[in-house]
Fold this protein.
Amino acid sequence: MTATPQSSNLHDLLAGGFPADRTKPCFILPDETELSYGALEQMVARVAGYLLAQGLSPGDRVVVKDEKSIAFVAVYLGTLKAGGVFVPLNSAYTQSEMEYFIGNSEPAIVITNAPAYVADAEASGHLMQHTVARAEDDVACLIYTSGTTGRSKGAMLTHRNLAANALALHDIWGFTPKDVLLHALPIFHVHGLFVAMHCAFLSGCPMIWLSKFVDADVLAGLRRATVMMGVPTFYTRLLANAGFTRELANHVRLFISGSAPLLPTTFEEFEERTGQRILERYGMSEAVIITSNPLSGQRIAGSVGYPLPGVDLRIGGGEEIGVIEIRGPSVFGGYWRMPEKNMEEFRDGFFITGDVGRRDPDGRLYISGRAKDLIISGGYNVYPKEIELVLDDMPGVTESAVIGLPHPDFGEGVCAVVIGNGNESAMIAECRTKLAAFKIPKRILFVDDLPRNAMGKVQKNLLRQRHADLFAGA
Ligand code: AMP
């Protein structure tokens, strides 16, 4: 599983994990058809050959904006093999958003139909046997951050960054060739593209390949899977389905959650239903995975666990709770063509994540939210998570999002948006018994659902816009 000595190309590390028997399945589709590792390898060699025939030079960007498919994966690995820089984009982006990404990344090739591209590559007859050599600090992928404020930034992940993280996860989560990974995540994002797929490739295990989370397909897939990786909404959807039983979850050895906070209530309900504790981990586009709960040992609701081996993690500002700063082999090489951002967001080798957290005496990390979601009300810092935990515990509340809204007196007023129903004044009264006065929501709004992005993250910026005038006349 080591790359050739003269090259640190991630492609060779991943392909080095493919099973010696290449007839073994890599992808298992819902209709039970399979595609072998050997077939994927062939596709990748053809794509790489075709990219080179089209004039791709080492370091050139290849943008792919398309739905999830095996062809998309072949283009990913083919781009690496040909020495290019892979740039996946959310298939939901509009034309004007695409113009920005293309202007910013200046790709040599843009692919909007991966299956057609692979078919052209196969018809062209080019086949590439040797991987283009790359150094460990060369960029392998540009991942555009979801960018809820300002322009999206391209995080430059190097071959070393991705290799280090893949090897660490494969190891700490105990992947073996006997595993079967249920893959229902999108692959334009680090979670589905790197975290999940790299673990499968390094162990040479098959993936149950679902284009998206469809309850019936996931339930059927769980009959064969040993590991499932998901965002928290996958788990709430499973729990809402009576067909998701302890028996069905029985032979799954590991349920992993990340990309957004897993509610303690979901963690607890899941344990009640299945007898298993979800393993929560924390990551971001700029560093892939940063911390994880342990495979063996206590997994604690509300904690994202310990830093991965080799990751230095500190809380900035010298307070108990503050912005999480990280350094380590998987921390990205900076933002593409944004030297001023790199100056601002790195401090003595540490990347300032923008997430706020604290560590317990044992070293476990707890995340309280994004720094930009911190509320300053009447001069006091209010961490939304603390209030959300109190609200989530109340009967009738499924989930809550606490935000700060412009307030004529306090600067910002605390407002809670809650999925569920209840009596606003009774709930505010209950908050008073548990929280200091400055933290008490001035209003609680009841909704059917919260706005979320493709990874299930609640978009507090949209909530703030939507309710911006709530306290205008206060
Ligand atoms: P992205 O770059 O789109 O993957 O978003 C990364 C952000 O997601 C992080 O900076 C966190 O704010 C959030 N995030 C990821 N995993 C978790 C988690 N387990 N708990 C809480 N927040 C998380």
The chain has two domains: 10-368, 375-466.
